[in-house]
Design goal:
Elements: E1 3-5, E2 19-21, E3 25-28, E4 35-38, H1 41-48, H2 52-63, E5 67-70, E6 75-79, H3 84-98, E7 109-113, E8 119-123, E9 129-131, H4 138-144, H5 153-206, H6 209-213, H7 219-231, H8 240-250, H9 253-274, H10 285-301, H11 306-314, H12 320-331, H13 339-345, H14 347-353, H15 359-373, H16 376-380, H17 382-391, H18 397-408, H19 416-435
Antiparallel strand pairs: 1-2, 3-4, 4-6, 5-6, 7-8, 8-9
Helix pairs in contact: 2-3, 5-7, 8-9, 10-12, 11-14, 12-15, 13-17, 15-18, 18-19
Length: 436
């Protein structure tokens, strides 16, 4: 089977790794019943990571003809006689609209249907979110027949809940095991305390009489002594006086004095190590923050793409939270009124910044820091901004609720941010309870 590069712009690249089979068509039937059969439509759809029904429906929409894909037999038919070149050109248009990333041109994208019934393409290479033109006829078909999500949000929620339950069960089992261990150790110690005195009396009173009268070889006395030895817990005295005695017994007087001097010197030197060093004056965090913001702004003015700007910011010195705070402030500097709209407009920068686990919480704390620093206009629209990121699948319910609870119970519990966020968080929790 002959293969070609995905995307017309990459047709001359001999080393391009994304390939698909060349289209093979066959005209079937006669008269009014004539049809064009795309023989290898299933193989093409697999290479594009799209359902074969999408490409077949797209041909029908563009040609104004009826089209049908049979899931059982895997056959794709379009009414009418159409040349292979014409259908291949329509397939290229489909790839540009519904497969390739609008930012980097990479075909490794995933179709995401947002909560507002909008279609976006999420790029696995650069993280860019491409907004598909919803005026196209195929968009209604895609919304009615959504693709199977490999890592859907519902599956993620179920996995997280199962993980939380597993951790809770593990903690409960650990606590029970600790209680059992404590009870067993208490029983052992009580037995040793109660049984230590009678064994001593048996040794004193019956070691000579019982051992000599009952058994001439003293086997019974040996058994008593062996039983007593089992109850004895041998320990090494680690005190300084015992150490001195052992040293003096084992070594001669000269070496003993040398060892004693060395141990005394070590003991005298320990308090000196424990002495706290004078604390150096702390560096001014605000100066470092402003410097980092200025550096990111300078790079942003050069016209860097979202992924390049985020990479530059992460390479700078500072903790992940400091870098995220500086990046967010550099992107939205000076914005007060219209903060939510600006967040929606620059969501690609945010998408590039929250690729790894734990970065959603960093982003939410950066939003909090930005709102605290800026004027009240941004604080008024903080709930709308967070909802815009939630609708774009850049934030999840668990992260938003955790951030809200952290703020309400923390040092900034009286802040206006949490009062404005409260209705949105309550809506999230009620929606999650309905799903359960």
């Amino acid at each position: 089977m002959a293969f070609q590069n995905i995307g017309a712009a990459n047709s001359d690249d001999a080393f391009y790794r994304y390939k698909m089979p060349r289209m093979i068509t066959k005209i079937e039937g006669r008269g009014n019943g004539i049809k064009t059969n795309v023989v290898n439509m299933v193989d093409i759809a697999k290479a594009l990571a799209r359902p074969a029904s999408y490409t077949t429906k797209y041909f029908g929409c563009e040609l104004g003809a009826q089209s049908k894909f049979d899931e059982k037999t895997g056959t794709s038919h379009v009414n009418g006689a159409h040349e292979t070149v014409k259908l291949a050109g329509l397939l290229e248009n489909f790839i540009k609209k519904y497969v390739q990333c609008y930012g980097c041109g990479n075909p490794e994208t995933e179709i995401i249907i947002t909560k507002t019934q909008m279609i976006t393409l999420k790029c696995a290479a650069c993280g860019f979110l491409s907004d598909v033109d919803m005026r196209d006829k195929l968009t209604t078909f895609i919304i009615k027949n959504p693709p199977e999500q490999k890592k859907g949000s519902k599956d993620k929620k179920a996995m997280r809940r199962a993980e939380k339950e597993r951790l809770k069960e593990g903690e409960a089992a650990d606590e029970e095991q600790k209680k059992v261990k404590k009870e067993t150790t208490k029983k052992k110690t009580s037995k040793e305390v109660v049984g230590s005195k009678p064994t001593g009396k048996k040794k004193a009173a019956g070691s000579d009489e019982d051992g000599n009268s009952n058994s001439p070889n003293g086997s019974q006395g040996d058994d008593v002594e062996a039983a007593d030895e089992d109850d004895i817990q041998w320990q090494t005295d680690a005190s300084a006086e015992a150490a001195r005695q052992r040293i003096q017994e084992q070594l001669n007087s000269v070496t003993a004095e040398m060892v004693m001097l060395s141990t005394i010197d070590e003991q005298d030197s320990k308090p000196e190590k424990k002495q706290k060093k004078p604390e150096s004056p702390k560096s001014n965090g605000t100066i470092n923050h402003e410097k980092l913001v200025a550096e990111i702004k300078d790079e942003a003015e050069k016209g860097l793409k979202s992924i390049e700007l985020v990479k530059f910011a992460k390479l700078q010195s500072g903790s992940p939270q400091e870098v995220m705070d500086a990046l967010f402030e550099a992107i939205f500097d000076g914005i007060g009124k219209g903060f939510a709209k600006e967040v929606t407009r620059k969501k690609n920068f945010i998408a590039a910044a929250v690729q790894e686990d734990g970065e959603q919480m960093l982003l939410l704390r950066a939003v909090e820091a930005f709102c605290d620093k800026c004027n009240g206009d941004a604080v008024k629209e903080v709930a709308l901004a967070v909802k815009a990121l939630y609708d774009a699948d850049l934030l999840e319910e668990e992260s938003v609720v955790e951030w809200y609870q952290e703020g309400v119970s923390g040092a900034t519990k009286g802040s206006q941010i949490w009062k404005n966020m409260k209705p949105f968080v309550e809506w999230l929790e009620s929606a999650e309870s309905e799903e359960d």
